[in-house]
Design brief:
Elements (H helix, E strand, L loop, with lengths): L13 H10 L3 E4 L9 H9 L4 E4 L2 E2 L5 H14 L4 E6 L3 H7 L7 H15 L5 E4 L4 E5 L11 E4 L3 H10 L2 E5 L3 H12 L6 E10 L3 H15 L3 H9 L3 H12 L3 H6 L3 H7 E4 L1 H14 L3 E6 L6 H7 L3
């Protein structure tokens, strides 16, 4: 389940998070954009529901310095030994450049270098290293956990997916259909056996098709016009479904861009319908190669009725 839960103040979510294991949920995964930071909701969940696995999906590698990122990860890993997974990624030019005024340069190298640094730093090694995109001189973590937390990479296109399989413990994927998993998974598994693939899946249980598609169209227009996400869907072969939206958006026609998104694209990327139908759709992601499907409930108001309805059977 994605945390923090939408529609409820974070400070009021204790009982709701504590209920998740009884419903059959095993993990909670955070993110970091314009809402909560990635670590605080997981720190709370580690106390509220001490059996849940905790994961970041994802922490941007640009917005924290390498040593600060290692310290944050080591702290949460020490609080929840054996239950924390660190997911990192490049994020996007919007978050990195427009919101944080940091150049979004060489994202592949920055993610690769951060991963290599973390492998050493999370193990307690002293790091003095000139990487391609930054330099670390004499850092050693004062707090570590044994074993160190796994590190997953947010990945969309072949080079990053291969890196996730080759040097990380797996990949975190987003904004893809169940069928798309069959395209991306082989790149990760090419790096060896036992790689985890985490996928965040947008779900609107019990919402009528027209409403669900309207919500989906707004999110598609907001995200898939960002260059990294557009490139991902070009790689997946979705040009025929999205070209008209991309052209309208480029021309400044926001209403035309929304109208140009076909129902089939929304239905591929957003799970909606009766709860049983949603559970069956989510299971298709697992059958296609996702090891950890992470649900993001998009219904308005209190999400717990939807979360209970979606609970694993």
């Amino acid at each position: 389940m994605t945390v923090p839960l939408n529609g409820i103040p974070l400070r009021n979510q204790r009982d709701l998070i504590a209920e998740l294991p009884d419903l059959g949920y095993t993990d909670v995964w955070s993110s970091e954009s314009s809402d909560a930071d990635a670590f605080t909701p997981l720190a709370l969940a580690s106390v509220w529901a001490p059996t849940l696995r905790l994961g970041t999906a994802i922490v941007p590698v640009y917005t924290r310095g390498p040593a600060t990122l290692a310290v944050s990860a080591n702290t949460l890993a020490a609080v929840a030994p054996g239950r924390f997974v660190l997911g990192i990624g490049s994020s996007s030019s919007v978050i990195v450049e427009k919101w944080n005024s940091i150049p979004f340069d060489e994202p592949y190298k920055r993610v690769r270098d951060t991963l290599r640094f973390l492998r050493s730093a999370l193990s307690g090694e002293k790091v003095t290293q000139q990487y391609d995109t930054f330099c670390v001189d004499g850092f050693r973590a004062g707090l570590t956990s044994d074993p160190p937390p796994p590190v997953l990479l947010a990945a969309m296109r072949p080079a990053m997916l291969r890196l996730a399989g080759r040097e990380a413990d797996g990949a975190i994927v987003n904004w893809l259909s169940a069928e798309d998993v069959k395209t991306v998974a082989p790149y990760v598994h090419g790096g060896g056996e036992g790689k985890e693939i985490v996928a965040r899946i947008f779900v609107l249980p019990g919402v009528d098709a027209n409403t669900a598609r309207a919500i989906g169209r707004r999110r598609i227009a907001a995200y898939l016009n960002v260059p990294v996400y557009r490139a991902f869907h070009e790689f997946l072969g979705r040009q025929d479904g999205l070209d008209k939206m991309w052209r309208a958006w480029s021309d400044g026609d926001r209403a035309g861009a929304l109208a140009a998104i076909p129902d089939r694209v929304v239905d591929d990327l957003f799970v909606h319908g009766a709860p049983e139908t949603c559970r069956e759709h989510i299971e298709r992601y697992r059958s296609a190669g996702v090891t950890t499907p992470v649900i993001s409930v998009l219904t308005s108001g209190n999400p717990m009725p939807a979360i209970r309805a979606l609970a694993p059977r």
